[in-house]
Each structure stands twice: as structure tokens, then as C-alpha cells.
Specification:
- By secondary structure, the protein is mainly α.
- The protein has two domains: 110 residues, Up-down Bundle (Methane Monooxygenase Hydroxylase, Chain G, domain 1), CATH 1.20.58; 101 residues, Methane Monooxygenase Hydroxylase, Chain G, domain 1.
- 85% of the residues lie in helices and 0% in strands.
- The chain has nine helices and no strands.
- Helix 6 packs antiparallel against helix 7 and helix 6 packs parallel to helix 9.
- It is elongated and about 95 Å long.
Length: 212
Amino acid sequence: MSLREILSKIEDELKESEEIKDELYDAMRKATRISKQAIFLVHKEEFKKAGNQLNEVEKLLKKLNKIPAVYGKFVYSGIVHSAFQEYVEARIFLKLTQDGDFLGPKQINVPSVSYLLGLADVVGELRRRALDSIRRGDIEIAVGSLENMELIYDEFILMYESMRVVSELRRKLDIARRIIEATRGDVAIEIRRDSLERSIEKLERALRVKKE
């Protein structure tokens, strides 16, 4: 084989590699975008639409299975991890909001590390749901959201080994702790306000009855 033939073959391989990378990255960017849209739909309680969106993301993520082993480096790139994390966050948030239950990594076919990081991000969406519920005067949902936030954090704290191995997890949990503390204060204030309003209403009714 001549040098020209050798270099031409390498050039073709590089071109194919770049095409596969571009196709994969486009799919992962789309997957991340649709997962974000699904989270928005969950907040609007449009669960069916959110589920349909995530089914589309699932198909995009399955493209990873078709990547030849020689291009495996692309499968472990940052953009792929981000797509998986966003998908995990959306799937768990939908399941929690709709059914009050969690999903495991095997149920949604995602890597364990992506699952842990995506689960940690659910805390932020639960805070948003709690605040939206407070604005609507729905304390029960706000309290339930806070309880799930605390459950996720408490279970993570027991996984010391995971925090040591997955360096990014510790940072996410530090953020989660601050978010939970803020939400706990918001919910407590709303509960006290609601209790005060009920007491005032009860007193007003009693005074009206007394006058009659």
C-alpha cells in the first residue's frame, strides 16, 4: 500500500468519525432541550404531553447503542452525560409529581452516575413546585414537595462512597442543602400565615354569632 493510500484511508476514517460525532452531539443537544421542555410541562401538570416528550428523548438516547465501539469516546463525552442527567431529572420529576414514586436507573435505562446526578437536580424542580404551590395557596403540595426534597438529600448523605467517587455529586448536594433550607423557611412562613388567617376567621365568626 502506498503512502497516499494509507493517508487517504486515515482521512476517510477521520471524516467518518467527525460525521458520527456531529450526528451524536446534535441528537444529545436535542434530547437535552426536549427534556427541559418536559420539565416545564410537568410544572404545568400536563403529564401526558411531558411523557410523550420523554419517550422521544428515550429514542434519541438509544442512538448511543448504534455507535461503533471504535467511537466509544464520544459516548462518554460531557454533552452525552448532560443529556442523560436532564432526562433522568425529567423522568423522576414526572413520576414523583404524577404518582408520588421514584424510578430506578434500570427502569429508564440510564448509567448509574447519570442517575445520581440527575436525581440530585430534582431537588431544584421540587423547590419550584413548592413555591408555585404556595402562590396558589396549596400548602399540602408544598409540604409534600419539601418532604421529597428532604428524602432525596437524606438518602444521598448515607451514600458517602458515592460522594467520594462522583466528585460533582458533592457540589450538587451542597446546593441542594441550601435550597432545602430556604424552602423549609418558605413553607413554615406560609403554614403560620395560613394558621393565623384561620384563627382570625374563626374569631370573626365567633364574634358575629355573639352579636346575633
